[in-house]
Amino acid sequence: MILFNKYPGGKKKAATMSYDDGNHTDIRLIKIFDKYGIKGTFHLNSGLMYKDNRISAEDIAEVYKNHEVAAHGVEHATLYNLPNHGVIEEILNDRRELERLTGKIVRGMSYANGVNPPYIAEIAGNCGIEYSRTTRATGKLTLPENFLLWHPTCHHKNCEEITNIFADLTYNSGHLLYIWGHSIEFDSDNNWDLIERVCDRLSACEDVWFATNIEIYDYITASRRVRVSVDNKIVENPTNLDVWFTVGDDTLCVKAGETLYL
Ligand SMILES: [Zn+2]
């Protein structure tokens, strides 16, 4: 039996962080992520960067250079309150400006003000968004059913217990820990020690792949495109990413663009 339950490097589990609004406190959070080798995605409002408590436009590329910059709407509007053309403008103009500031294609998003109905996800997809995070915590360590309505595992306020459970898991099933929040909450709640402890615990796990949201999306999308013959003898990878999988007790890799004959 072939199981696509491994991450890059043959790792058993993946962890990703997702932080909204681009507050100044992101700088302190990124220092912690970088110290522990944790990867995060930062969802930014390009129309609000002039505000005192936000990272300014000219600093975006430098501050977030080790992480992913993703959209969060130009003005942080609640998308389902807008007419459809307003939803499109809020997403597309945010992409356009964030791409100009970073020099990278912006393909990810998180919904401002929470959870959105499926028609908003469809509009987001039509604006070139490939995944978008909600605020509906599942408490689960699973991949999303729909990347355009990507429900996270937990908010960081409630992440410590499940992080410890995740860290202790040893069997293969492609677990994903997805933590979200706002870095400014660490200031208001005076609990920077919480994220420091969680990152410290995660970084000690050798079987965890730390990735941005889009890296998780890209890898899972690639693994689902790998073709397997009915007798499980031919494994063909038409994508541009190496994909790992298991056959019995063995972990194997089919390299980008290559075919394995087992
Ligand atoms: Zn927000």
Can you walk me through this structure?
- This protein has 2 domains: 2-221, TIM Barrel; 228-261, no CATH class.
- The termini are close together.
- 31% of the residues lie in helices and 21% in strands.
- The model has no long low-confidence stretch (mean pLDDT 97).
- Helix 1 packs parallel to helix 7 and helix 5 packs parallel to helix 7 (192-203).
- It is built from 8 helices and 14 strands.
- It is α/β, with parallel strands linked by helices and 262 residues long.
Q: Ligands in the structure?
A: zinc ion
Strand proportion, as a percent range, falls in 15-25%
User: What proportion of the residues is helical, as a percent range?
Assistant: 25-40%
- Main sheet, how many strands, which sense, barrel? 6 strands, parallel
Q: What's the N-to-C terminus distance?
A: 12 Å
Counted by DSSP, the helix tally is 8
